[in-house]
Specification:
Number of strands: 12
Order of helices and strands: HHEHEHEHEEHHHHHHHHEEHHEEEEE
Shape: globular
Number of domains: 2
Structural class: alpha/beta
Helix content: 40-55%
Radius of gyration: 24 Å
């Protein structure tokens, strides 16, 4: 009888321990979900197939991945619903408990949908995600992580299991929604180029886009602008420092002693004119060898801090010299440059960022044609209000994206209109 009593107490202890551990996670979950703002949701919310069994959301720090996950829960589950759980892989809980253990307890408690934020901060995450996927066929798992993580990282092949999404910062359209409360649906590039005049007239009837465009260029790309506007650029700088000092060192084996040189490289790139790419000169200025500079540039692009452009992406190698280099978004230029940014560079940076954010293939147009080649066919020249068609006059699908204008004429389209693609 004593043996049975002792076994009963032991089993009761195990059950209560499991219960208490899950209750701690649910308490944190409730705290996160109850505080998430719901007035504005990113367009990616509608693009994700939430029925997939394993979803991965990648993106640089600060673009709103955590908020997106929490908002989805708030929209689709009732308060106190224990079929769903949101947790962060960098929480202290995971220093003592594994992902597999957590998923097991969650499923045993009736859970069906598990959200794991900051998955890249958990060691061996891919191996355990694969195990969870194979063990629990009725469990839906959504994870988020750095732009630098590779879901097929050699430890476990998740490519056939996981549906991957890339999350950029705010488009100009999303910024206007947040800033003015006016929700305008995104437009495809086919729709925009087919009748740009009608689209622009429709927008101008509702607001003056140029009134907001300059501010977006300086401070509108990262959603945390709407939290503390007065310290926006210092927070952007903190994001850059975090990516270089923490993420590149952890996931691309950047030596700690070289982080200052990478920051110097980024500052040099923030000030060069895009068509003056001299890798040897840049390397001398920051004190590193040319091959190392090219390797760092590749990593900075993976981290969504710069954009390398080539005339032909199909034949490009990893360490090939880019034909043009831009920072990833205009806010980075205004934050990192120690001089007044060249407006032409800012315009090209915006255009490239918005097209890439809408999942278009962007290539360098070359010296004798327009600035950018889009999806292998369309050629678009970017410039000011007086920009002419000389660079694209011989192109079957040649256009001008002009800053400083409200209306579209012929194939001359306001630059801001390309900010409505996502």
């Amino acid at each position: 009888m004593r043996v049975y009593f002792a076994l009963y107490n032991f089993l009761l202890f195990l059950y209560s321990t499991k219960y208490n551990i899950m209750e701690k996670l649910y308490t944190l979950h409730d705290s996160y979900i109850s505080r998430v703002p719901m007035a504005f949701t990113r367009s990616l919310m509608e693009k994700i197939n939430w029925n997939s069994r394993l979803i991965g959301i990648k993106g640089p720090k600060g673009v709103g991945k955590s908020t997106l996950m929490q908002q989805y829960i708030r929209k689709n589950f009732n308060d106190g619903d224990r079929h769903v759980l949101y947790c962060s892989a960098d929480a202290g809980y995971f220093t003592e408990h594994t992902l597999v253990e957590t998923a097991t307890r969650f499923v045993q408690s009736g859970g069906t949908t598990l959200f794991i934020d900051e998955i890249h901060k958990y060691e061996n995450w891919s191996r355990e995600l694969k195990e969870i996927y194979d063990l629990f066929r009725d469990l839906h798992v959504v994870v988020s992580g750095s732009s630098l993580i590779r879901f097929n990282d050699g430890q476990a092949d998740l490519s056939r299991r996981l549906v991957e999404y890339e999350m950029p910062g705010l488009s100009f359209r999303e910024y206007l929604w947040f800033e003015t409360g006016l929700k305008i649906e995104p437009i495809t590039i086919d729709q925009l180029l087919a009748d740009p005049a009608a689209f622009c007239i429709g927008i101008v009837r509702q607001l003056r886009p140029l009134e907001h465009f300059g501010n977006y260029m300086k401070t509108g790309y990262y959603p945390f602008y709407f939290e503390e506007k007065g310290v926006y650029q210092s927070k952007v700088q903190a994001v850059v420092n975090y990516i270089i000092e923490s993420e590149l060192t952890a996931y691309r084996n950047l030596e700690i002693g070289n982080t200052r040189k990478v920051k110097a490289l980024l500052q040099v790139l923030s000030q060069i004119v895009p068509y003056q790419v001299d890798i040897s000169k840049i390397s001398r200025n920051i004190g590193i060898q040319r091959p190392t500079t090219l390797k760092y540039m590749k990593h900075l692009e993976e981290a969504k801090l710069i954009q390398r452009l080539f005339t032909d992406l199909e034949t490009t190698s990893d360490l090939q010299k880019p034909d043009k280099i831009l920072l990833d978004n205009p806010n980075l230029i205004y934050t990192l440059s120690s001089v007044e940014p060249e407006i032409g560079t800012v315009r090209e940076c915006f255009f490239c960022n918005q097209l890439v954010g809408a999942s278009h293939k962007v290539e360098y147009g070359g010296m004798k044609t327009g600035d950018f080649k889009i999806d292998g066919s369309r050629v678009i020249e970017v410039g000011g209000p007086d920009k002419g068609f000389s660079q694209v006059k011989n192109e079957k699908e040649g256009y001008v994206a002009a800053d400083g204008i409200e209306s579209a004429t012929f194939r001359k389209i306001p630059l801001w209109a390309f900010g409505f693609l996502y």
